[in-house]
Amino acid sequence: MYVAVKGGERAIRNAHAWLAEERRGDPDVAELSVAQIREQLSLAVDRVMAEGSLYDPDLAALAIKQSRGDLIEAIFLIRAYRATLPRFGASRPVDTGAMACDRRISATFKDLPGGQVLGPTFDYTHRLLDFALAAEGEAPEAPGRETAPADVPHVTEFLNREGLIEEAPPDDAPPPDLTREPLEMPADRALRLQALTRSDEGFTLGLAYSTQRGYGRTHAFVGELRTGAVTVEMDVPELGFAVEIGEVVLTECETVNQFKGSKTEPPQFTRGYGLVFGRGERKAISMSLVDRALRWEELGEDDVGAPAQDAEFVLYHADNIQATGFLEHIKLPHYVDFQAELELVRKMRREAQDAGAVQVREAAE
Amino acid sequence: MKDAAEPEASSPDPDPNGPRKAWMGLMAKAPEGRVAALLDAAVTRPAFTWLRAPEIGSAMVRARAGATGAPFNLGEMTVTRCALALETGEIGHACLQGRRKADAAAAALADALLQTDAAPILREGVLEPLQAERDAARAARAGKAAATKVDFFTLARGDG
Amino acid sequence: MDAQTLSGGFADPAIDAAHAFRGVMEAMARPGTIQTVGGAAPPAPLSPAAGAVLLTLCDADAPVHLAGAADCEAVRGWLAFHAGAPLAPPDRAMFALGAWEDLMPLFAYPVGTPSHPDRSATLIVERADLRAEGATLTGPGIKDRAALSLPETAAFQANRRLFPLGLDFIFTCGDRLAALPRTTEVA
């Protein structure tokens, strides 16, 4: 029960003022600009866009500045802003096959059309703190190489040619949208993918890891991981045709898992799919493992009771804004509730004491 | 391998909207401020009336499960759109990524002007530079990616 | 689409829609009162008030059914451009617009469900005339009684009996409107 609590205006005003001061930190230190955050903390910006579910790097950078680097607080700001925007429409599904790949690797095939392109990755760094970065230096410059445009087809296409991997047949029914209709169970794959792409990275990572440790029976290979820009196309009714409205950077992960086959299906590989805004590789891989785990039913597998197989558990706890909303609400005054609890505990102790006293008397008699 | 006996596939009729789609897409993907700068260097902005003043909203980006399967909603992106009519009647539209009212206004004006006799000036002054800039930027980025492409080689083993 | 279709929207959508919303809200809250709602210039045969209501309340998530003369190329285009509202048959409409006879039969529209009585249609009824006289209205938001020139009474009495389900009505004429929510008793 919530009680209307008065008298906090002055305290709140002062709290806001102090927050602004703390946010700024030492005034002798240069102030952080939104552009600096956008350019130099771009992976944080990417996470805020992905979980805030709104692709706009400047807004995400502003949210990070305002939230003092608390990314879930920044995601909250972005979600709130998103809710104020009128929606003009939906894009045509993006073609990740036509992505201008900055990075594209496969753990399943060494030599593939387009090759293994490492991109600007942390993977081969030694994970030693680089104290040279503590001092400002010259802008680094990466070497380039002459190249002709090349096709970078999806790896799953060649596995498909031998019929070794389950197909993902196209379908054009408009997908459900959990920003419009509340998420209800059972959720189809489109809804699960939407929920997973905006889910908390840590929660999804933990669940994905659990499937690798035996909570679920998936043994995943990264068939392909690619990061780069794709164009976004949208139909404009008053024009009568679709136009390209911009580009977004996406990270896509296709995992490949074994399936034993059934009476009707020969054994083939099955798939997990992860796709996120920005360069969120860890999130894309995690998403594809969890996507695969949640597909146990449609693939005729057993429910081994793994948390990652439980759609309700996964989907209802994966959104960090919903989670923190309810979590943090317990900070609100619950004074009356607690008074009631206090009275109850005291009463129970009194009754226990009285019962004890009666027993002693009876024993004495 | 194409069978020599196969008849040549007839090329489909060119899309009448093709050129307009191409220039609208090019302007939408241009970096902030470029369209306005090139437009103002090429022409004096003509008078026009707003049919829809620039407004900011969102578009839901969709993708396909498994890259080729059923569509799902990936997340929204900010979009700015507007529509205007020149005094001579041509209608210009813009619908582009981001919260960029000035860019949208410039793109819609250019779109309208590209439907008039001024089209060649717009092509030379706006579209060609934008295309060149975009091609150069993409080539540079592709070059950096190519430099990180692994050239596998196998070590020759001894014969003994 | 031509310039005609593309014009006639709110000049300042945020402000104009807020004014129009206020007008509809007042009309619904005080059934029988007549409010002035301007700002829109839709194509014929739509009244400015009906146009303003569509621009204010309809978007891509609110399917609209256009009935009778209202269902014409110009109106379809205007609605698509300015509101982005999809068209729908009566049974899937959230809003329906037309003259009273053209909107019939009323049972074709969704009246909501017991768990979601709000998933019902709102009918925008274009009238040649709109006056504070005729049928007698009583109920929530009405002090004692009010009067409104309704096209009939039987249909509204039947609708009232469905409460909490039912339809809600907005009557438009020129730049004026009145409303009849499902809570109002009509005699």
How far apart the termini of chain A lie comes to 48 Å
Count the helices of chain C. How many?
6
Biggest sheet: strand arrangement of chain A: 3-4-5-6
Note poorly predicted spans of chain A. none
Q: Kindly report the oligomeric state of this protein.
A: heterotrimer
Rounded to the nearest angstrom, the radius of gyration of chain A is 27 Å
Structural class determined from secondary elements of chain A: alpha+beta
Q: What does the overall shape of chain C look like?
A: globular
Average predicted confidence as pLDDT of chain C = 95
Largest inter-chain contact set: A-B, 84 and 52 residues
Low-confidence blocks of residues of chain C:
none
Number of strands of chain C: 9
Helix content of chain C: 25-40%
Roughly what is the average pLDDT of chain A, rounded to an integer? Answer: 92
Number of helices of chain A: 12
Listing every helix as H and every strand as E from the N terminus to the C terminus, the arrangement of chain C reads HHEHEHEHEEEHEEE
Biggest sheet of chain A, open or closed, and with what strands and sense? Answer: 4 strands, antiparallel
Query: N- to C-terminal separation of chain C?
Result: 46 Å
Summarize the amount of helix of chain A as a percent range. 25-40%
| Helix/strand order of chain A | HHHEHHEEHHHEEEHHHH
Give the SSE map.
The complex is a heterotrimer of chains A (365), B (160) and C (187).
Chain A (H helix, E strand, L loop, with lengths): L8 H16 L9 H7 L1 H11 L1 E2 L1 H10 L4 H12 L4 E4 L9 E6 L49 H7 L27 H9 L3 H12 L8 E16 L4 E19 L8 E10 L3 H14 L16 H7 L2 H10 L5 H30 L1
Helix pairs in contact in A: 2-4, 3-4, 3-5, 4-5, 7-9, 8-9
Chain B lengths: L17 H11 L5 H9 L5 E17 L6 E16 L4 E7 L3 H13 L5 H29 L13
Helix pairs in contact in B: 2-3, 2-4
Chain C lengths: L2 H4 L6 H17 L5 E2 L11 H10 L6 E3 L6 H10 L12 E5 H4 L18 E5 L8 E4 L7 E3 L5 H8 L6 E6 L2 E5 L4 E2 L1
